[in-house]
Amino acid sequence: MPKYETKQRKALLEFLSANADKPLSAADVVSGLKNSGISASAVYRNLSALEKEGKVQRLTVGGSNKVYYRYTVAKGCKRHLHLSCSKCGKTFHMDVPASDLLIKEVYDSSDFKIDSASTVLYGVCGKCGG
After folding, report:
1. Based on the domain organization, do 12 and 71 belong to the same domain?
2. Which of 16, 65, 99, 127 stands the most exposed, by the fewest C-beta atoms within 10 Å?
3. pTM higher than 0.70, yes or no?
4. Range of the domain at 46
5. Same domain, 13 and 65
6. Could you tell me which residues come within 8 angstroms of residue 31 by beta carbon, excluding any fewer than 6 positions away?
7. What pLDDT, on the 0 to 100 scale, is given for residue 58?
8. Within the chain, which residues score under 50 in pLDDT?
9. Which of 62, 57, 63 is nearest to 82 (CA)?
């Protein structure tokens, strides 16, 4: 059964898509949508539903126990591995040839297929001193 597309859900999806390169806490989303009329409870409810639908991924950054969400259906996400800076939290797409090569090498050497849409590699970006 398709999910009914409410104004609140549409505003949330637009916000997540516009911020797909950042891990966002639920509080970040609530704050970012404060002028759109979406309530905090609607944000939490919709994030939970979107996680079940596979449209957002729940993750932690830098070993903290704080929960963040990453929008996984942003343009190009399905084909890339994701690189996440453990200092600033920004998420980058690994370029497709490098992603494909790494996925192939892992499969060839260990018979293990990586799910590129949900895989995040952590490190430090060049801007933060990587």
Report:
1. yes
2. 65
3. no
4. 1-75
5. yes
6. none
7. 84
8. 1
9. 57
pLDDT digits (tens, 9 = 90+) for 16-47: 988 887 778 999 999 999 988 889 999 999 99
Residue 1 pLDDT:
45
Q: How far is CA 55 from CA 2, 13, 36, 50, in A?
A: 14, 9, 21, 5
Is the same domain home to 21 and 61?
yes
Look at residue 16 in the predicted model and tell me its pLDDT. 92
* DSSP for residue 74: S
Residue 4, number of CB atoms within 10 A of its CB: 6
- Both 17 and 64 in one domain: the answer is yes
User: Cβ-count burial of 73 within 10 angstroms (0-12 exposed, 13-18 middle, 19+ buried)?
Assistant: middle
**Residues 43 and 34: beta-carbon distance below 8 Å:** no
Q: Are residues 24 and 58 in the same domain?
A: yes
- Report the CATH number at residue 65: 1.10.10.10
Total domains, the chain: 2
Where do we find the tokens 């499969």?
107
